[in-house]
Amino acid sequence: MTARISSPSLGAASYQEQGAWTASVSHRWQRSDRHFVGDDEQKYRQKEGSEVINNIHLIDIGVGYAVSKRVNLTLSIPFQFATRSQAIRDPRAPRNEFGNRPVIDRYETSADGLSDIRLLGTVWLLDPDHNKKQNVSLGLGVLFPTGEKDHKDVIKVFDTNSAGAYSPRAETRNVDNSIQPGAGAWGVIFDTYMFAEVVTNLTLYASGTYIAVPATDAGVVSGNLQTSTTVWSTGDSYLARVGAGYRFLPKQGLSLTLGARLEGSPPKDLFGSDDGRRRPGYAISIEPGLVYARNKWFASFSAPVALYRNRQNDAAGQEGDAAFADFITLFSVGYSW
User: Fold this and answer.
1) Would you give the DSSP letter of residue 13?
2) CA distance 192 to 310
3) Is 148 part of a structural domain of the chain?
4) Which domain does 257 fall in, by range?
5) Which of 15, 26, 34, 312 could be cross-linked to 280 through a Cys-Cys bond (beta carbons 3.0 to 4.6 Å apart)?
């Protein structure tokens, strides 16, 4: 996932005086349980109870410093708290109406801790003193591989006892790539943000972030640690947003926002090889939100609702499925001094 690490303030409220510091805390939550192959939803997964359920909380602590009125540095320190629930099928039983073996059990794995730290530098292309109603910023940063890449947990695997009854055995494996705290590789962050106040109190905005991870993989095995030869790929990720914000209560610093959001991971990386196992895909959402910016405080809340989801084929053209969320929640609060 691509975490937003810039200020949630809208338009010129993002400007900082030279020497100013900013501290912020952000929270992102999503529950992914809707399976897609391409853009075709596998609705039978809910009906037979075989859906994978990822429940992920991401808490991001940010610290920013204004080197000048045009140049800013932001350090983002994220912590992840995630669980993944999966089904166990009985390979001995007759197939169900969907052509699959029936689900007889579930198990849950988890992975918590520090994720990958990001450092981003941004520059306003136009002088903030003379461009209160429009500007463009460009950013370049580094993704540090600080998060654990191969967190392990105990997984239930179908097995029987001497009497032939179901008696699952336990295997210690790397948890699924989707809930690993870290990618295990360095990355390069490209960022842009632009705004224009087209009429009084109405601001249009657009932003984009792309994280390129040149490494092919981080040596993290998928499946049985003793027998599997499948390694997870280290893929790129991206986020793009476009929309409008209206200050409906200017004196109170409150704005309503409405925009479109595109978020995902591509089949092919910008740099390096695309080998290894990966789940490329993207979601397009409508994102209503509320932004507050007043007296050096800022806060925002939004709840992007998915309109279209697509689990793309990988770089080799192989299809697969992935679980997407119906919606996510994003909350940020911070203070500048």
Assistant:
1) G
2) 25
3) yes
4) 11-83+110-152+181-336
5) 312
CATH of the domain at 218: 2.40.160.40
Whether 41 contacts 35, CB under 8 Å: yes
| Pairwise CA distance, residues 332 & 28, whole Å | 9
- Measure the CA–CA gap between 187 and 78, rounded to whole angstroms: 15
Amino acid identity, position 175:
V
Q: Outline where DSSP puts E strands in 181-230.
A: 187-199, 202-212, 217-221
Within a domain: residue 173? no
- For residue 178, give Cα distances in angstroms to 4, 107, 137, 249, 322: 18, 16, 31, 40, 10
Question: What span, in angstroms and rounded, lies between the C-alpha atoms of 160 and 165?
Answer: 5
Residues 178-207, buried b or exposed e (16+ Cβ, 10 A)?
bbbbbbbbebbbbbbbbbebeeeeebbbbb
The verdict on residue 175 lying in a domain is no
Q: With bands split at pLDDT 50, 70 and 90, how would you rate the model's confidence at 5?
A: very low
Q: 317 is written with which tokens?
A: 């053209």
DSSP 8-state code for residue 48 = H
Report how far residue 74's alpha carbon sits from residue 119's, in angstroms, rounded to the nearest whole number: 6
Q: Is residue 125 a contact partner of residue 136, using CB atoms and an 8 Å limit?
A: yes
Reported as a single tens digit per residue, the pLDDT across 261-306 is: 999 999 999 999 899 999 999 999 999 999 999 999 999 999 999 9
CA-to-CA distance for 293 and 259, rounded, in angstroms? 19
Q: How many domains is the chain partitioned into structurally?
A: 1
Helix (H) and strand (E) counts in the chain: 1, 19
Residue 167 forms part of a structural domain: no
